[in-house]
Amino acid sequence: xxAGSIANTLSARNIVVETVFITDFKFSQAFATQVESKVxxxxxxxxxxxxxxxxQVIANQxxxxxxxxxxxxxxxxxxESQAIQVITSQLKQSPQYLQWLAVNRWNGQMPYALxxxxxxxxxxxxxxxxxxxxxxxxxxxxxxxxxxxxxxQNQTKQ
Length: 158
What we know:
The chain is mainly alpha-helical and 158 residues long. It has helices at residues 2-11, 29-93, 97-105, 146-157. The chain has a domain at 30-101. The chain is rod-shaped.
């Protein structure tokens, strides 16, 4: 635009202008301050846009992580539900499953305190020892062996 104006003015005097170079501009301090302020404001605008984009990316990552955690929780709950169903089914088929499960989970250490089974009929564990079952007490006296009969007779004679 400036080059065209100069070329038109000089062509009236038969001067051909090929290129125009303008150097050593002297602008007022107010103009320079305004230009600098505009550049600074534009840079601040770009910085704020980048900050906003960063916040949006972080928010999206948080949402994705929360959705993944929710899916993991649902999968875990579903797996636990299926395990409970399998255990329940197994218990219906075989009541000894609980004892088998306890044996497999036992760490091998005896308890510090021992108690009785509370049944008193000999069907429980022996004094609180895990996994030990005593045979049932006989309800009738078993017949004596011949050696036991001889001992018993000798004791009655004395």
